[in-house]
From TrEMBL:
Residues 385-588 form the DUF6923 domain. This is DUF6923 family protein. It holds the Pfam family DUF6923. It comes from Flavobacterium qiangtangense. InterPro entries: DUF6923. It comes from the Bacteria.
Length: 701
């Protein structure tokens, strides 16, 4: 019988590859035999040293043992193996001494010892090398003998190959580094000095330290280790982007340094393109968003390569930014108002990813245009102050204001007009000089104040075939304003009569007649039709066309078209067509009492109604009418002879003319061509055309 026992005892050092094994083998084969085989364990050494407050520089590490390591703010020395992992962490005591016991540093292995306020974890990667605020590394010595010469590297590390003896008297030198105070431009936590917007330089003399030793002053250097050779002076106009190091100098020695990253100014401003027309389905290329931005006090627009653009909360399917900063709006983008955000980042390698601007906004409005067609629109000021509703005006069988074009607008507006150049409507916000643009969804965009247009109450407005926008205040006056929509500037047109004398009148709306390049309006005091000449030779001449009956009327909505001038009156006047020669008007439909109307139509498109009107031509001479029947007392003004080409003239102010009434047209046994009857069954006047009776209807021939 064989009994086999194996005892394998392992003692390993983390990540060092150094270990021993002992084997115990027992065999029983009719007798007992025991043998021990031993593998020699690698020798380990202790390591100890001291942290010094060194005030005389990094040549030799000396001074007074540091007492900054306390229970609440300890320092640590981390032992690091060749693989870069922590083997052991020793706590520095209050006297500045650290000890690493036996069992961790193996003979023949090269280790690093790191001084840091961060403790390592055995087997883990090395923590960040950092000291408490206001302290910096002076140097390190591993000689163990006087004068304790520095290893020449001011980095908080000692590299040591373990020999046959324990290691003692290793030294880390530390010293006070400037603890710079926060300012408007400097952040102590990040160590960044941000050059202010509009400036290209930093004034480092504005920085102070909270721990400046007596008799010392702050100096600035280009290297981590401060020396007279790398000192920078003066420091009142330091250009970014670069790194400098602050040190204390007592007249002889330099202290450890504090890194300060000086970042060039990267400044951005919001970009509002809402006043720039962007049409749905067309898109646009808008001016550079960099126009208002600057880098290092220079225009980013001129040097866009100095920064990188970062999209923030941005939909690139709506708009993108080209390398030169131009904003490219997609033709497929839906109509709407969009606000996007962006940042600029310093392209300098010393600051990339850290020197980032604040957020800036980009606002664009993508508008859906109207169609230049026969549709009529009215804008109606609401009963509640401050709102206006835009609606279509339909005339299929009666006047209706439907459907609405979007929701009621705030602010309220008037002087609404259709621009045939871009197919958008424009208006003036009530009691202001703010120009508004209205799209086909009823969205109203304020595109800004009109230069040279006084603040006022503009109720009358119209746009000609070239896109010139004309507005007039409602009050009695002799000035018409011509607005350039693109530049948002107004010029004055003085209104005069045929004698070139200023002509004042009240106007509630305007209509453009493309045939003669004139505006038309109705004088509300007597109903006369006025024309305003826009032709250069007679610009601003007002002609009283006539047509009024002396009664006050208010045509608040006027519509111009190649087919004529139309008006929709307030207070139940209805929709009428005006004769531009005589001023006579014919009512197409009556309406209920309405107030606050303003009319809109594309002046280059015809106006279509269920029937048309043609005014009689009474200008040509004819044969006087010889016979007249009247219930008036006396014949005035040469009546009936002043009615040309008639056989009989009938006149009455309070009586009607009754023609033959029959139960139905079939009651006439032998009709004659041209015969008129009133058909009671059909409720209409009928005319016999030699073959059939037809009701008389409005029509044009």
């Amino acid at each position: 019988m064989i009994n086999l026992f194996l005892d394998n005892i392992i003692h390993a050092f983390s990540k060092k590859g150094v270990y021993t094994r002992r084997f115990c083998l027992s065999l029983f084969w009719s007798f007992t035999f025991m043998s021990f085989v031993t593998v020699t364990e690698a020798q380990t050494r202790t390591i100890s040293g001291t942290i010094y407050n060194d005030t005389d520089g990094s040549v030799n590490i000396n001074g007074v043992a540091s007492t900054i390591s306390t229970g609440t703010n300890p320092l640590y020395v981390n032992l690091i193996n060749p693989s870069g992992n922590i083997v052991y962490t020793a706590t520095v005591n209050a006297s500045g001494i650290f000890n690493i016991p036996t069992g961790f540093a193996a003979q023949g292995i090269t280790y690093q010892l790191q001084l840091s306020k961060l403790s390592g974890v055995a087997g883990a990667i090395v923590p960040q090398r950092v000291l408490p605020p206001g302290w910096g590394y002076v140097g390190e010595s591993k000689t163990g003998v006087t004068p304790y010469a520095s290893d020449g590297l001011v980095d908080g590390y000692i590299e040591y190959t373990i020999g046959a003896s324990n290691i003692t008297d290793l030294r880390f030198g530390i010293g006070l580094a400037p603890a710079l105070s926060n300012t408007t431009n400097y952040n102590r936590v990040s160590g960044i000095y941000q050059v202010p917007c509009g400036s290209a330089v930093a004034n480092l003399n504005t920085l102070t330290a909270s721990n400046t030793p007596s008799g010392s002053a702050i100096t600035w250097h280009t290297g981590l280790v401060a020396t007279a050779a790398n000192r920078v002076t003066p420091v009142t106009n330091i250009a970014g982007t670069r790194n400098l190091y602050a040190s204390f100098n007592n007249g002889t020695n330099y202290s450890p340094t504090t890194l300060v990253s000086i970042f060039a100014s990267v400044c951005v401003a919001d970009d509002d393109y809402s006043g720039t027309l962007v049409i749905q389905g067309i898109g646009a290329t808008l001016p550079s968003i960099y126009t208002n931005d600057n880098y290092n006090a220079a225009s980013v627009e001129l040097t866009p390569s100095s920064v990188d653009f970062l999209y923030e909360l941005w939909s690139t399917n709506i708009a993108t930014v080209a390398d030169d900063g131009k904003l490219i709006v997609s033709a497929t983008a839906p109509a709407g108002t969009y606000t996007f955000y962006y940042k600029l980042v310093d392209n300098d390698p010393d600051a990339y990813g850290s020197n980032v601007s604040d957020l800036a906004t980009v606002t664009i409005v993508i508008s859906k245009p109207f169609s230049c067609d026969s549709k009529l629109y009215v804008s109606v000021n609401g009963s509640s102050a401050g709102t206006t509703q835009l609606s279509e005006l339909t005339t299929a069988s009666a006047i209706t204001f439907a459907p609405n074009v979007g929701a009621a607008s705030t602010p309220a507006y008037n002087a609404t007009a259709f621009n045939p150049v871009d197919n958008f409507m424009y208006a003036i916000s009530l009691a202001t000089n703010q120009l508004l643009r209205i799209d086909a969804d009823g969205n109203v965009t304020n595109i800004g104040a009109v230069t040279s247009l006084p603040v006022g109450s503009y109720l009358a407005g119209e746009i000609d075939v070239n896109g010139n926008y004309y507005v007039k205040q409602s009050a009695n006056g002799s000035i018409l304003y011509k607005i350039n929509i693109i530049t948002k500037t107004a010029t004055i047109i003085n209104l005069v009569n045929a004698s070139n004398v200023a002509f004042s009148f009240i106007s509630f709306d305007l209509a453009y007649y493309i045939t003669n390049n004139k505006l038309y309006t109705v004088n509300p005091t007597n109903g006369d039709l006025f024309s305003i000449d826009l032709n250069t030779a007679t610009l601003g001449r007002v002609t009283n066309v006539g047509g009024g009956n002396g009664s006050a009327v208010n045509y608040g909505a006027m519509f111009g078209s190649p087919t004529g001038i139309y008006g929709l009156g307030n207070s139940g006047l209805g929709l009428s067509k005006f004769d531009v020669t005589t001023g006579a008007r014919a009512t197409i439909y009556s309406t209920a009492t309405l107030q606050g109307l303003d009319g809109v139509h594309c002046s280059t498109a015809p106006i279509v109604t269920p029937f048309c009107l043609q005014f009689g031509d009474f200008t040509a001479a004819g044969i006087p009418t010889q016979t007249g029947v009247s219930n008036l007392v006396g014949f005035a003004n040469g009546w009936p002879n002043n009615v040309p080409n008639g056989f009989v003239a009938v006149e009455s102010k309070n009586k009607g003319f009754v023609i033959t009434r029959v139960s139905s047209a079939s009651a006439i046994a032998v009709p004659e061509e041209g015969m008129l009857i009133y058909d009671e069954a059909a409720n209409c006047i009928k005319l016999y055309n030699s073959s059939v009776w037809n009701c008389l209807q409005r029509s044009c021939n």
